[in-house]
Thioredoxin reductase (NADPH) (Dyella japonica), 558 residues
Amino acid sequence: MSEQSPAPEVVYDPTDPMNRKEQMFPRLEDAMIRRIATYGQEENVPAGTMLFERGQRGADFFLVLDGLVEIFDVDKHGQSNVFTMYAARQFSGEMNMFNQRAVMASARVAMDSRVLRVRSADFRRMVAAEADISEIIMRAFILRRVGLIRAGFGGVVLVGPGHSGDTLRLERFLVRNGYPHRLIDTEVDPDADGFIECFQLHPDQLPVVICPERCFLQNPTTSELADELGLTEVIDPDFVYDVAVAGAGPAGLAAAVYAASEGLSTIVVEGVAPGGQAGTSSKIENYLGFPTGISGQALAGRAQAQAQKFGARLAISRQASALDCSVHPFRMQLDDGQTIQARVVIVATGARYRKLDVPGYELFEGAGIHYACTAMEGQLCKNEEVVVVGGGNSAGQAAVFLSRIASHVHVLVRSSGLAATMSDYLVQRILLSSSITLHTHSEIVGLEGEGRLKHVTWQQRETGELTTRPVSNVFVMIGAEPNTDWLKDCLALDNKGFVLTGRCAQGHLLESPYATTKPGIFAVGDVRSGSVKRVASSVGEGSVVIQAVHSYLAPSPV
């Protein structure tokens, strides 16, 4: 008998939802099913009946009583690909059940079945009223979304050169919004030639996005992609919200969670994706309650789900472009022309990234210069030298994260060190790491490359020494400027453009430290003058401001 080689060791991955199938596809107890039945109606459905289709908004919730329901998508040849089946006492749906976005897969009855249908509006009522059922559903929906992302089911195919600025822009949008997709990198992927030949593409037409329904988008804008995928919300211009939150960073999401959970009709407007700058952090280790750390994207995703669970609406890929504060309700104008009316506006638009003053800098934005450091950017840096510019916590987190991927990390700061601007635990990791070199009194003076970044030159200002290294990725984290251009003359700003809060125009203290010079408009988070630029403080401000919102909305005593 020949000797057999040992079977490969199977490594358990606790983050893989397929290792938690009992939570991903739970079977509900009879008592829970009876309670759910009070929110819906029982139906006998013949085999082959479609329950909902990909692209549909506001799909109903289905609980299988008897029979079988299959979840599927359609490939480029029009063939059904069944990837999930629900049997008796199991239920349909994933995170899109909590909003009005288009569903990413279709459902049909595989055999004559009996189901319990809960309409979309009644589903929201059920989730709000039945805490134990809500917990099971929420956990299952989150795990299912993670599973969809990992497997690429129900998603899109992005075809383009991996280092292209537009490819990175589109992939970053899909990643940060948790949308399943597969990247076919035309620089390295052997499948790329087949796609390019099949769709008769030329290199200058890339990147393209291909949907299961045969949609074909050639280098779309972020808004065009969001519209095609059904990620945007249709806003009723006549409806008046209690609260409109501009910005879905930690402060904005916290405000949305507390406002919605306390019964206020709430909408959040966000230009790119939930999380703000914090959402681009690879790992936040000093946020209370997460001793092993959590990525900014994961934290933002949980907060988004939490806000939607309580009924808040999120308008993604649309940002506030103007605010008419001369009328009440206030009228917030969005960059796509839509208008939101609200009794209260919470400004949580945070800040935009500062840029380096280096010749040719704009040529390499998105093609080697990054303002975020997540796993997506990290995969571009494997076994290469990288540069991180900045001395704050974001720069420190990026350097530590990249030191496990890149061959070496160069940290450039203009000051004499890190202690004054960075948390000590990060400073110590940087100083002790053999994979990281700190260059003080240093700044980038040259960028070279054709189409994408290839070489970086920096200068040590005290000695004048120049250093040039083969670097294709630079992470610029040198602070930010407030996103307050859209406010125009509505509010008083400080000399740097941050919103002044806590005092009226005459300098008297206001009831809330987050109140602005315009009653009914509040500011929280990084956009507020004097704020502490930390995730925890932003979350605190977003939650506390709702008390002032209630006071403002309360009817005046007679």
Notes: The radius of gyration is 25 Å. Confidence is low (pLDDT under 50) at residues 1-12. Residues 326 and 490 are 8 Å apart (CA to CA).
